[in-house]
Amino acid sequence: MSEVRRSTSSFYRPGTRSSWIKRPKREWKPLEDRNCTDLPWFLLFTLFLVGMCGICGFTIATGGAARLVFGYDSYGNTCGQRNEPIEGVRLSGLDHTDRKFVFFLDPCNIDIIQRKIKSMALCVSQCPTEELATYYDLKKFAMINGSELCSYELPGHKYPSLPERFEKCPKLPVPQSKALPVFNRCTPVDISCYAKFAEAVVTFVSDNSMLNRLIAGVAASKEIIVGLCLLALVLSMILMVIIRYISAVLVWILTGLVVLGSLGGTSALWWLYIDYRMTMNETMTKDLRKTEEPNGGIKTTKDHSQRLLIYAVSATVFTGILLLLMLFMRKRVALTIALFHVAGKVFIHLPLLALQPFCTFLALSLFWVYWIMVLLFLGTSGNPEKSEETGLVEFRLRGGLQYMTWYHAVGLIWISEFILACQQMTVAGAVVTYYFTRDKNKLPVTPILSSVLRLVRYHLGTVAKGSFIITLVKIPRLILMYIHNQLKGKENACARCMLKACICCLWCLEKCLNYLNQNAYAATAINSTSFCTSARDAFMILVENALRVATINTVGDFILFLGKILIVACTAITGVLALNYQRDYTEWVLPLIIVCLFAFLVAHCFLSIFEIVVDVLFLCFAIDTKYNNGTHGREFYMDKALMEFVENSRRSMAVEEQGRSKRSRPKEEVELTEVKAMAPGTSSA
Questions:
Q1: For residue 244, what are the contacts with CB-CB under 8 A and spacing of at least 6?
Q2: Contact residues for 373 (Cβ-Cβ < 8 A; gap 6+)
Q3: What molecular function terms (GO) are annotated for this protein (predicted)?
Q4: DSSP one-letter string for 17-57
Q5: Is 10 helix (H, G, I), strand (E, B) or coil?
Q6: Which end of the chain is more exposed for a tag (fewer CB within 10 A), N or C?
Q7: Helix H or strand E encompassing 117
Q8: What is the pTM of this model?
Q9: For every residue of 491-545, which 3-state class applies, written as one string?
């Protein structure tokens, strides 16, 4: 592979024999040199992971994990094992070896705000297998099964006569319960007592019958739901391959719709304004005669007219700017079409790219499950405290230990962004290998696996640094969003506006940094440079091609959005046809919503990979055209479709240059040339 030529720049150094010294710029050497990048950040991220594992170990060592899995009662005793007494808490330190299940006296008493059951919990040896309607039934169940469902100090054979039974025994009737498979909680078989909670979560559910019908519709259509989800998956994979053939058609359809829509909207606003003015002139005299306060009527009418005029003028300015932009960017649209064409070829040569969303989703799912489990462990860790409000024992972290929850929350964001950044680096490495390999038959057997190995061996520090920068921006935005939700309805209009403005600015900054990070990863994959160096180099390339970047991001993103809508629409239509046998719409509307959401999620994941491929191809193309010109020793690396775009651009520039030079020549020289051309004997034989 030929080396990209070295360019030089000059700088002034006083006191030397030659004051101007040539300073070489860093070369772009695709796939040549490999070394470890951002090693300190890799070590920092490793230490952070050790801290995350330390939190998990702490929860296990202090019994938080055991209390979550096996459950604990309201006196701080863990079910299924011997317990140590807790100072100041009566009925603690009991032997619950034979009592392995947690039973709630009032399982339907749910605190929707805190999302927990506000009921006394006891450890029992068996969950009630049938409904118990009276205290005599409780006594009979305790005598036969040896499972006492009232507080420990109450003897089972005296349940019906004890005065404390109303406070320390379960609320009647006791519903039939079944133990959860892993967490050993007695859960009512009939979920009707959770209807209030379900209605709070799903606001459109108004009664239990509708909830039951919706759940029944999902259960009855589970095979169709799975089939439609697989259909959305197949459609997404097919679209990534064929989008290169339909991208040109979509671009020109989009252009026509935008032009017609902007012109039609502007014309409609001007027509409304003229019509309103004519109507206002006709009725002005009548309104002045009938209205006791004519000044108010005239002022209101003028306000409406001025608003329409402002809307029409604004639409006209917007349409003019839009048409000018499309006029200047029409040639760059061809680059977007060419990049889409090459991206389709990339997926044909690198079919394992289609598996990247699965791998990323699997990694994120495993991490999120681990994170949630450790978070639940933290909720049952710490020192036991007796609540003054309920009198129940709760475990809480105090002192410096409570900061472990914040550390754990930061880990959720940083590690999630790290996994997504690994996907971007993997895709960028594979695409860079494809682009800068002249003979596609000499590609590695598995470029994706080669890219993963390079990432693990050299560039984990770069990925850790880039994901940490996104984390620094995302955390303040999430905090502001939390504050905004907590103060909803309490803050004044100015504070609400400032909060929304800050959230919006941080969101925009996060999107810009995400785009820059993605290109920095591509530059690292090309040159094996550190994150900051790669980000600077990629930023300079993007600034030099700002109009091309704008065209690709606007036109390309809209094409991909249309692709997502196409997949969702096809899946929804197929779902309507498949679920049509269920005449009651309430039985298939929820399955159809689930399928459409899944289809959009799948389409977004797959087409996001396609978008990353297009962006990396553009960066490679910009570097290729900047440092190569197609001559001997500086041959292009690009595909034939991109080569045709470059040749067409050169021909257009040559024609424009000839026309410009002809217009700039003096008039006398042009006339003399024409006379010589018409004179006899001047034509060549």
A1: 340, 341, 342, 343, 344, 345
A2: none
A3: transmembrane transporter activity
A4: SSSEEEEEPPP--TTT------HHHHHHHHHHHHHHHHHHH
A5: strand
A6: C
A7: strand 116-117
A8: 0.75
A9: CCHHHHHHHHHHHHHHHHHHHHHHHHHHHHHHHHHHHCCCHHHHHHHHHHHHHHC
